[in-house]
Known about the structure:
Low-confidence stretches: none
Structural class: alpha+beta
Bound molecules: zinc ion
Order of helices and strands: EEEHEEEH
Strand order of the largest sheet: 1-4-3-2-5-6
Distance between the termini: 35 Å
Number of domains: 1
Strand content: 25-35%
Shape: globular
Number of helices: 2
Mean pLDDT: 90
Radius of gyration: 13 Å
Amino acid sequence: MIARGGENVKCDWCGVGLEPGESWQLLQPARNLGASFCRLEHVVPWLIRKDDWHIRDRVEVPKSAGADCAETGVELGENAFYLVRNRAGMEIADGFASKDAVLAWAKAGGRWARD
Ligand SMILES: [Zn+2]
């Protein structure tokens, strides 16, 4: 299911209101799709059970994203997904070659679980 809007307003999994600049954004720039979350843990059940994206006006590849998949290490193609952590004016992005890669990475706790 795809709906328009919903950017940065509430968590797409639990519905809690999001503060401006304090959220997780899951993006697919090639299709202008996005979803918002209050915490990384809510990306996992959303991907498994809902997977309902919002069409946004313009979704761009995050500047802070690398060229390789954060989960599998393969080079990202044009259909890549990006998971962006916004916090206190900072943006930290990780790129993924597939939805499955996003799910595996989020289940494992994200980038901080592996440092
Ligand atoms: Zn939530």
